[in-house]
Design a protein that fits this description.
Layout lengths: L1 H22 L11 E2 L3 E7 L13 E4 L6 H10 L4 E7 L8 H4 L1 H8 L6 E7 L8 H8 L3 E4 L4 H8 L3 H11 L4 E4 L1 H4 L5 E2 L9 H6 L8 E2 L11 E4 L8 H12 L6 E5 L4 E4 L4 E4 L7 E6 L14 E9 L4 E3 L4 E3 L3 E8 L2 E2 L20
Parallel strand pairs: 3-7, 4-5, 4-6, 6-7, 10-11
Antiparallel strand pairs: 1-2, 2-5, 3-12, 8-9, 11-14, 12-13, 13-16, 14-15, 15-18, 16-17, 18-19
Length: about 375
């Protein structure tokens, strides 16, 4: 049976390549088959030739990574009018995806989170893919978009200043939903941790020096409603990322309109509707953490540990919500106002268990 499936996949890829070679592009009806192009891989589940959604609604799904939250994906599908979903990924330039991995989310959108007309996946292998008209055509006709996890530096490097960046902005402006998990969550705000330093920033090191080489911040990437002055972080509690998020905000807030931080735990999602109200998705395993500094740092300099007072933290659970228009948090599980002196948290609070750790797990970047 597996040999039969592999043969079918090979035939589909070959047919797609032949169509591509024949006319230099892919019309909607020709996208029925996956293929490997020079700069990206394309996978499809469902039927891209079916009509798109008659109606879509604005929506943002902020997913913390570490596992799927079914309700978050169904939120995207519903707001996409059960039409055409496009999944965007990035992979190593020399390591094309196989069919099973490349179509992982596409198959789930069709079989578990749908019904949808189709779920198309584009896996970018370099920046050139973002200038390919076939890629632009697929994104332009998406009713809903989902950004997968991986390495957010690739998203920034591959998309910034390209048609893909402009199309993503236009997609949301047209009241179509978008979501992201892990690295895909990290880039949903205008301000983002770009991870261009080659390794992930750790709270302990960043608190000791907020200008550490690992701290590469992007301040003009995607431009979505309610996310203009929001900074997101993923895998939040498990990887003890509160300290680094505060350091990121300290640097960004030194020169801009106050930016709030949203940290999302693993297997947890914050769903934001057209009214700007964000609530946890049903079935979320953790919490969402709202971080709002109230004053400038007392010490913020290269090579010196961060000192900062009056940082408000709210732990958001299933009963609460946040209004992104006012940043008011209602019915939080718990709140705290914390102080950091010379890179160290002062006192005990809800912040302590997720503030910093000695070292990352071996499996992490």
């Amino acid at each position: 049976m597996r040999l039969c499936r592999l043969a079918l996949c090979f035939f589909s890829l070959l047919l797609g390549a032949c169509v591509q070679a024949a006319d230099g592009g892919l019309a909607g009806a020709d996208r029925a088959h996956g293929y490997h192009a020079a700069h990206f891989d394309y996978f499809v589940a469902g039927d891209p030739a079916l009509p798109g959604a008659r109606h879509t609604e604005f929506g943002l799904a902020l997913i913390g990574g570490g596992g799927n939250v079914d309700a978050a994906f169904r939120f995207l599908v519903a707001r996409a009018g059960h039409g055409h979903i496009v999944v965007l990924r990035a992979t190593d330039a020399d390591d094309p995806d196989d069919d099973e991995l490349g179509n992982y989310y596409g198959n789930l959108f069709v079989s578990r989170w749908g019904p949808v007309a189709s779920a198309e996946t584009i896996s970018f292998r370099d920046r050139a893919a973002a200038n390919d008209p076939r890629v632009a055509d697929i994104i332009e006709h998406a009713d809903g978009i989902f950004l997968a996890g991986g390495d957010q530096s690739r998203y920034v490097n591959f998309w910034k200043g390209t048609p893909v960046q402009r199309l993503l902005d236009a997609h949301v402006k047209a009241n179509r939903p978008i979501g992201g998990t892990s690295a895909g969550l990290a880039v949903l705000g205008r301000n983002a941790y770009a991870a261009l330093g080659g390794h992930s920033a750790e709270s302990k090191g960043v608190l000791a020096n907020p200008f550490d080489a690992s701290v590469t911040l992007e301040s003009d990437f995607l431009h979505f409603k309610y996310m203009e002055n929001v900074f997101t972080d993923s895998h939040f509690g498990k990887r003890h990322r509160l300290g680094r998020l505060i350091a990121f905000l300290a640097r960004l807030n030194a020169a801009k309109t106050p930016i709030a931080g949203i940290g999302v735990d693993e297997k947890t999602a914050l769903l934001i509707g057209a009214d700007g109200i964000g609530r946890l998705a049903d079935g979320s395993a953790g919490h969402v953490w709202i971080v709002q500094p109230q004053r400038a740092p007392t010490q913020l300099a290269a090579g010196k540990p961060l000192s900062m007072a009056d940082i408000r933290i709210a732990q958001l659970g299933a009963e609460g919500d946040i209004d992104l228009t006012t940043r008011r948090v209602r019915q939080p599980v718990a709140t705290a106002t914390i102080t950091i002196v010379d890179g160290t948290l002062v006192g005990d609070s809800i912040a302590a268990p997720i503030f910093a750790r000695d070292r990352p797990e071996p499996s992490e970047k």
